[in-house]
């Protein structure tokens, strides 16, 4: 059986978030990118649009998460957790999050999805930084735990990215490796 047919059987040909039967398609749950039964939810176009563009989020439509959060399918739990977290300013969404129970591995997956979802390290101008980029420090930065200062204009070559999207790491002036807040850098 194909992946799509297996997913349609699992969800009874209904969106796994809102229950709609219109225009269903598999959606890989971040940070996963491959389309497999264990990495995807089967969702409608409306839910897909709201996941992919936060500006299109319809709070009333997403009240469906009150039901989908109780799914036994881990990918559905992850998507429900991610969307409820994004809507946590809404009292109903915060209440749902407070009630929601997920296994530890599912919660870790959801936390990784939240980190990977749109949060990329960006320089002072909002330009996305990638592994291997060279950056210039835009202001004097004190080095935690020492009395050293990374001077404005210092070039950090071949940066690395970690789990925290706000930080980049690299060696300044050929010295020891250190972390620098990405928004205090400018891509060369």
UniProtKB/TrEMBL annotation:
Listed transmembrane segments: none
Entries under Pfam families matching the protein: YjdM
Highest taxon listed in the record's lineage: Bacteria
Domain PhnA protein N-terminal proteobacterial: start-end pairs: 6-52
InterPro entries hit by this protein: PhnaA_N_proteobac (IPR013991), YjdM_C (IPR013988)
Record protein name field: Alkylphosphonate utilization protein
Gene source species: Aliivibrio finisterrensis
